[in-house]
Specification:
single chain; about 20% strand; Coagulation Factor XIII, Chain A, domain 1
Length: about 750
């Protein structure tokens, strides 16, 4: 119930007045939209106000499962939505934050007889139970509402204990046995803030590289960076003084379509990309003579050598090569370890049990998709399957799982190997002395045609997508083609999908970066088939979600970093700050009022800083204006009038960087203040810029190897798909050569000096 629809009572409580449902169509639609989280307007990055159209409101409501029609139907929906929380005894979930004492549980009740009693049971996470009874009329009334001629009251039950941090269950029944006066609620007790590692205590600061794992070259991998490379990389960077290693999202993509390569458009955020498996390191490889003969055959070795030489990852050929050998290893594993139920076979069964139903559904999806894609290559995901397979609970799906159990377990085996290898890389980071270690990245959502959408169809608004309104770098706005979670359904599920997503991505991680962290408060929804400018913001219960984030962060010993770039409401940073979530700050964007670059001392301490990111120009590309030329070639500027000032401003910014470095005594010898004398960025200038950023009090600093190695092309160019080789570029040098590369070592030395 919106706060403006509740009237205060004399004793400080509030009463909901009877709502006039005969109000105008537009007002009813707006009120219903607000109730579902849809904001009636939004402001772009330049401060312009945009009113959300009725068509957009209706389309987004439909995507949420609220299908509106006539004015009378909208009024009925509004009435039902406003009355729903009053007609249920308990809300679906209550998130308590540390310090919330006494604990009050809201209980909504119809008119009762004097002396009506209720029994309650609180089942704690460890299965201990607390019980009690209360008389309803003894509880204070917080709110009232007239519904159908009856007065419903919302009363506050003071729980006589403060539950420990965790996930608990609260059950309420009427002593009369009336089923309409019974309810269940998930009670989540959360800490006040997220985990902070010892390396950041006091004035502690760390730095480390942030790279795209697929782009790591080595003389051992199969044409794509893998978890073995990750382990070697963390040891190299630890020797340079790094305290963390940041990665692109490692989410599961689409094995049947390896060219679907964007790590930010995953099939599932709950599982891993199996093409990152280091095949040679799987124990079965050492045991299987068949596998070793296959890989050591001259033709196969030549194929791998060709894949390593390419500057772009050839996902199709990499996947084909890995899958061919993984099939052999899995067959060997079934014939030996599973057949004889030895220790390794039991370890796999334990992994299956620990991952539960989610793993089985994920593997089922991949096996079913593989089956139908083999029959018809145009089948790209579950919406293309025969209708009887689109429901995970359908008998046809169960029959498929039974008949194709070996194939389903093949995909579970791959997830097991990926999990083991990521865990081993994380262990190597800890053993090397990294204060944080592996830093994982959580995409904002999933591909609607993938495994997670199939398994959790009610959770997602499959008729809408997440995006962003126009801004300086994406003047036409962005549509990321990712369905958002529906706020109401998320709460009804007790936040289980959100909890699972956090928990799986904090596994083996010392830090988790949450992409587009503003999504904890609001996401920009775009109706299917519409332009980004026709979208609207949809709000989420940020306080409850932050409580869960803090709980999972503490339980997993995982620092949280929020990517809060772009259009960020003040309320988001105000909420994240006390939680201990690090903000993201980029050198490119941190400016004073006159456009000059902020001095290092003016950066916030509670932040993770970097020069650039995967979605922005590399340092070399920015300096040379490669990104501006590319965006012009690809028609990403709406007009020349918008493009030309940005080109002129870039020239000024090069001079501003040189002036900022001179102010800090970091301008390399022989470099003047005239940017015309520096046509290309040099390794010394690169080291100076990174030293400048390293001087900030920010707790964490990320460094892109692309910047240190002088690569002009960025990993991803937002607004493009096939026009630009996104998520394919490799680093220019092999991992084995990093220890002797003066470009890397020079900047690492500067960073050790500035933040030892």
């Amino acid at each position: 119930m919106p706060l403006d629809g509740i009237r205060a009572l004399k004793d400080g409580t509030r009463e909901g007045p009877v709502v006039d449902y005969s109000m105008g169509h537009s007002e009813i639609l707006t009120r219903l939209s607000r109730l579902c989280g849809i904001a009636p307007e939004w402001h772009d990055i330049w401060g312009n106000r945009h009113e959300v159209s009725p068509e957009t409101k209706k389309a987004l409501l439909a995507a949420m499962g609220v299908r509106v029609g006539s004015e009378a139907e909208i009024a009925d929906l509004l009435r039902e939505r406003e009355e729903r929380p009053w007609r249920r005894v308990l809300p679906p979930v209550l998130v308590l934050r540390e310090g919330s004492s006494p604990v009050e549980i809201p209980i909504s009740l119809p008119p009762l007889k004097a002396g009506d009693a209720f029994d309650w049971v609180l089942t704690l996470e460890d299965d201990r139970q607390e019980t009690g009874r209360f008389i309803a009329e003894d509880l204070p009334v917080r709110e009232e509402r007239e519904i159908g001629g009856s007065t419903f009251t919302r009363r506050a039950f003071p729980l006589p204990l403060v539950p420990p941090a965790g996930y608990h269950a609260f059950h309420l029944t009427a002593s009369s046995g009336d089923p309409d006066l019974a309810g269940d609620m998930r009670l989540i007790a959360a800490p006040s803030s997220c985990f902070r590692p010892g390396a950041l205590e006091g004035t502690g600061r760390v730095w480390g590289p942030a790279f795209q794992l697929y782009g790591v070259r080595s003389r051992q991998n199969w044409g794509i960076g893998d978890f073995g490379d990750l382990g070697d990389a963390v040891e190299f960077w630890a020797k340079q003084g790094a305290g963390l290693v940041g990665l692109n999202p490692l989410h599961s993509l689409f094995p049947h379509a390896p060219a679907h390569a964007s790590p930010y458009s995953p099939s599932s955020r709950l599982f891993l990309n199996v093409w990152y498996i280091d095949v040679d390191s799987i124990p079965e490889f050492a045991e299987s003579e068949t596998a070793r003969k296959l890989v050591n055959a001259p033709a196969f070795k030549a194929r791998l050598a060709d894949l390593r030489r390419l500057d772009l990852v050839d996902y199709e050929k990499v996947a084909a090569s890995k899958k061919e050998v993984l099939e052999v290893l899995y067959a060997y594993f079934r014939k030996t370890h599973l057949r004889w139920d030895d220790a390794r076979g039991r370890a796999f069964r334990n992994f299956q049990n620990s991952q539960g139903k989610a793993l089985r559904l994920h593997a089922l999806f991949e096996a079913i998709q593989e089956h139908f894609h083999r029959e018809d290559p145009s089948v790209s995901g579950w919406p293309d399957w025969p209708e009887e397979y689109r429901d995970p609970g359908a008998p046809e799906v169960a029959a498929f799982a039974l008949k194709q159990i070996k194939r389903v377990e093949f995909y579970e085996y791959l997830q097991w190997q990926a999990d083991l290898q990521l865990g081993e890389a994380a262990r190597r980071a800890r053993d090397a002395g990294m204060g944080i270690g592996v830093y994982r990245d959580l995409a904002v959502s999933i591909d609607g045609r993938g495994a997670e959408a199939w398994a959790n169809q009610r959770t997602y608004a499959l008729g809408a997508s997440v995006g962003a309104p126009p801004d300086d770098f994406n003047l036409k706005g962005q549509d990321w083609a990712l369905p958002p979670m529906v706020p109401d359904r998320l709460r009804e599920a007790g936040y289980a999908p959100f909890i699972a997503t956090l928990r799986r991505n904090m596994r083996h991680a010392g830090a988790l970066r949450i992409d587009h962290v503003m999504g904890l408060m609001r996401l920009f929804w775009i109706p299917e088939g519409a332009n980004p400018a026709d979208g609207a913001y949809v709000h989420y219960p940020i306080e409850e979600m932050l409580g869960i984030l803090a709980l999972e962060s503490r339980r997993n010993g995982c620092l949280v970093i929020g990517e809060d770039l772009g259009t960020v409401p003040d309320a988001v940073r105000a909420a994240l700050g006390p939680m201990g979530v690090l903000s993201t700050r980029l050198f490119y964007f941190e400016r004073s009022w006159d456009g000059s670059f902020k001095p290092p001392g003016e950066y916030p301490a509670q932040a993770a800083v970097a020069v650039s990111t995967h979605d922005l120009p590399t340092l070399s590309g920015w300096w040379q204006g490669v990104d501006l030329m590319l965006r012009a070639q690809l028609n990403l500027f709406p007009s020349d009038e918008i493009r030309d000032p940005q080109i002129a401003e870039r020239g000024l910014d090069r001079g501003r960087i040189l002036a900022a470095l001179e102010r800090e005594g970091l301008l390399p010898p022989g470099v003047g203040l005239d940017p015309a004398g520096v046509p290309e960025i040099t390794p010394d200038l690169t080291a100076g810029i990174h030293a400048y950023v390293a001087r900030t009090p920010a707790r964490a600093m990320l460094v892109q190897p692309e910047d240190l190695l002088g690569r002009p092309e960025q990993a991803n160019l937002p607004g493009t798909t096939e026009e630009h080789p996104n998520w394919q570029r490799k680093l220019p040098s092999d991992l084995e050569d990093w220890a002797g590369d003066p470009r890397l070592l020079r900047t690492a030395e500067a960073l050790r000096r500035e933040r030892p």
